[in-house]
Amino acid sequence: MGKTYPEIPKHIVPLLERLPLYFVASAPNDLNGHVNLSPKQHNGSFCILDGVTVAYLDLSGSGAETAAHIAENGRLTIMFCTTEEEDAPNIIRLYGKAEIVWPQEVFSAPEWKGKFPSHLLEHPGFRAVYKLHVDRVQTSCGYAVPIMSFKRHRKVLDEYSEKKGKDEMFHYQVYKNSFSIDGKKGLAQMRPGAVPVVMQEEGGFFLGIEKQKVSVTDSAGKLLSDLENFLQAYSTPICCFALGLATGAVLAKRKFASGA
């Protein structure tokens, strides 16, 4: 039977701290917009600040729906559930309003000291922390949730990010995270020092093309276009001129040869 609490009860805190997987859900104001649900691995990424406040550290991904939705309405739900044989079936939902905390503040504000492990704070893909002000805690039985065993955390993102480095991951976020799938401003366009971009739709996604790169590409394209137009306009005179030079060279060579 489901139960509700005004704050996180102490008896479920150990469960929230050790479960390896949780989900975050958000939605835009537009009824035609897309509801988002994302799985997150709990390798130190989730922390409980107090009885009504939690947070999770977010790493790079190909999407950034949560930030776009929070900017509109702040609504966020975080869900945990047990799946191991030894755990009693349980689903825990944390409802509330969230805010985005940028890495610069996480590094400087005393509130965040010691809240997340160094391997996440130093991760090249660290893009933000989401702080949730919880207004409802709800538990339910989870009797229909299957039993599964956790094996290990994936290392693919860690290895990819380390290979790319912070600079390349920053530009990856600009490219992939500037807009939501509904075309709303995304995380990379909200953060301090956001890089100006031009929106480009491709394969059902809205990508952020950095304006500086667009300018360089446009300049190169204009140069090639101008050259093509020049050649088209003056191809006949140029060919005649070249032919004249070649003919003159041949005649001069013959004259020189006969004189010798």
TrEMBL record:
Q: Where is the Pyridoxamine 5'-phosphate oxidase N-terminal domain?
A: 9-140
The protein, known as: Pyridoxamine 5'-phosphate oxidase N-terminal domain-containing protein
Q: What InterPro entries does this protein's entry cite?
A: Pyridox_Oxase_N (IPR011576), Split_barrel_FMN-bd (IPR012349)
Q: Per its UniProt record, what Pfam families does this chain match? A: PNPOx_N (PF01243)
Q: What Gene3D superfamilies does UniProt report for this protein, alphabetically?
A: Electron Transport, Fmn-binding Protein, Chain A (2.30.110.10)
